[in-house]
Amino acid sequence: MSITEFITEQTHKYYWEQDLNCASTTLRILSEHFGVELNSQVFDAAIGMHGAGGYQAQCGLVEGALLFIGIIARAKGIPDPKSIEFCRKLAETFAASYGSLECKYLRPQGFRSENPPHICEELTCKAITKEIELISSWLEINKHDNLELV
User: Fold this and answer.
1) The pTM is what?
2) Closest Cα to residue 119, out of 136, 103, 137?
3) Which residues does 57 contact at the CB level (< 8 Å), separation at least 6?
């Protein structure tokens, strides 16, 4: 299965079978792809991270990825300043690619009850694909940081 097929299949499953939000879906797919086990509290914390609970603030696709970066960086021994710098780069790349970090621009119709559910499914697949590319490259560049001294 290609990475695109994996992301599309998992996104659809998490949105339509489990009714997860974009941040939780992003976290789950990133953790599965990179083989990082996440504590259930991480998913509990992401429960309202879909535009700040529908307020149309920062997109959960960004929030989920930023949370994941901190988790995988610690797991790989990458120093915090490098993680923080990469979070900024990921946010800048997302904003340049999609025009904003905010749901009010990415999802201009808002979170009204008459909107179809999971309206951001296509954007989710595109964003997670790009996030996997960026995170993979970043981990490759920083792989020396997790080498233990012998």
Assistant:
1) 0.89
2) 103
3) 51, 102, 103, 104
